[in-house]
Amino acid sequence: MNRRLELLKKKMQENALDTCIITDFYQLKYFIGCEIHTGERLLALVLEKSGEATLFVNALFHAKESKDYKAVYYHDSEDPIALMANTIQGKRVGIDDSWNAGFLLRLMSAYSAEYVRGSFLMAEIRCQKDEEEQRCMIEASRLNDEVMRRIRPYLKVGVTEMEIYDRLITLFKEVSHGPVSFEPIVAFGKNGGDPHHESDDTVLQKGEAIIIDMGCYYNGYCSDMTRTFLQHGNEEIEKIYDIVLKANTEAEKAIRIGMPLKDEDKVARDIITEAGYGPYFTHRLGHGIGIEVHEPYDVSESDEVLVQEGMCFSCEPGIYLPEVGGVRIEDLVIARADGTVILNHYPKEKQYID
Amino acid sequence: MNRRLELLKKKMQENALDTCIITDFYQLKYFIGCEIHTGERLLALVLEKSGEATLFVNALFHAKESKDYKAVYYHDSEDPIALMANTIQGKRVGIDDSWNAGFLLRLMSAYSAEYVRGSFLMAEIRCQKDEEEQRCMIEASRLNDEVMRRIRPYLKVGVTEMEIYDRLITLFKEVSHGPVSFEPIVAFGKNGGDPHHESDDTVLQKGEAIIIDMGCYYNGYCSDMTRTFLQHGNEEIEKIYDIVLKANTEAEKAIRIGMPLKDEDKVARDIITEAGYGPYFTHRLGHGIGIEVHEPYDVSESDEVLVQEGMCFSCEPGIYLPEVGGVRIEDLVIARADGTVILNHYPKEKQYID
Description:
Distance between the termini of chain A: 57 Å
Structural class of chain A: alpha+beta
Strand content of chain A: 15-25%
Largest sheet of chain A: 6 strands, mixed
Number of strands of chain A: 18
Helix content of chain A: 25-40%
Oligomer: homodimer
CATH topology of the largest domain in chain A: Creatine Amidinohydrolase
Shape of chain A: elongated
CATH superfamily of the largest domain in chain A: Creatinase/methionine aminopeptidase superfamily
Order of helices and strands of chain A: HEHEEEHEHEHHHEEEEEHHEEEEEEE
CATH class of the largest domain in chain A: Alpha Beta
């Protein structure tokens, strides 16, 4: 049994769970190295507190051989839920939050037990990145920095958001040799007032700011960084830039093992609120990241979880003035007892495009 | 209230459902034209049997104004499940199968009711494509035929699967001006023995067959077609080609309104089984398709659903000989009382590449 499954087995004991059902693509990748996409067909690992593990796979797919589990293949004409119901032994069953609720309701009918959320156990393990994982996170962000450096010369009045978007995709192919970890956000001028703006044919005008939020993979680990570039002559945006930068840097400085994540959010939020822009910082300060671009835990006003050794998360304060524009500055960080590691090194001081 | 929601309200009455919770991206798109991606943040339409409808949306996103529902925006610091629990009125609640099981378990704790699967009601409505939807399906398949025509000259000994894959992506950009409806499958020679082979650097050798399974969108509606190209001098593959082609054409001829989908599967399966290849036809005959590339219902040995006016599904028999190769031939069809419409017109007679 591999180390990660051992840790999960221990968490199950601590939380009085008899059985754990792992169904999420990334959980399966993390715990047993299984990376098959089965679409709407059920794929589930049933882990008993004894350590016995069974992987249910549609016969159209092949799971690699492993000492960690026994693979049970089912055909399209069979009911995998019935097979699972015959295998599960526990009375208290933890399920993966992202499982299909239809499968869960079917299993609830087929096998009587107390069903509870189980993903939080896996999150507790996954949030602490080991040395090799930290190395991959650092390298993914180094590649991301490099692409930010290479996109910089393309930022010129007259270019469109989609042109920059397409150029980013090309640069990532050159630099990280793979797909992006999420669709890059490129927002010019007032589009920056919407934190989730989708790139379109908007043309960059004189004086407008540019938000670029982007990421790639290294060895299956994600990067995610935002920078806001400026043009001279836009006083309000320059003013909020200073505030957001202060919120970003102070929040990064404040990180300590053992502090609640909500306190980390508060450091940034207080700075923005005191400057009078509280209502315009409309999202959480950050999110966990690893093999998924969004992983537990949120760095938000309500997250009570404590910062732990090896936790990797984003620090991304922003101010969004609807119909005017916005600023967001985002780095990834790894919390460590020997000092926080900031993964992004692309400059954060005000950068003016030509 | 729009016609689709009216139909759903009627289905709810027929099935004694008080409340329906719609959360799936495509269900929301179909029923209320909502197309926002909210990632891990909850997005849900609560429809009561009275017709009252409330859409719960994170405040970072914007749902378009509509007479069909009231939008309730929540912030990251709020618990949307608590808001939903305060809104739901019914005692028997149908939920979307694809909902996040973690959200469902939270709602089960927050609001006591009988929870049942609800997607089947929506499937009953969505499976019958109206005239405009049929027009879009036909056009999407016409574009797909055109790309099959254009890829044909690139199929030459020495080319790699990835080169054909990349060329397909380029051709779809030219022809359908958008993304593909699923990652194209390109399988050479013995790779064709795995129905879900992922394209790689395999080089096409003399004598090998080529399976291409691909699709695109028109106006949000999907196409999906498979053709197998041959080279001379491969008797076993030629033999199974004849069997698969017969299974495909006979199954298409057999389609009648009112017949169970499993009988449709049986027509093809019997032909393949009688020819001695039953164990090598390892998947269902087909699947529903529309705004999603896989929609209810399966055309499988176990699906009792009857063929209905306006149903669109794939007819894709295949024979897969592990380590040898395979053949699959797939068309989309629309069942109609006035005669089945076959959506693909790219030739199915044996085609030999140069």
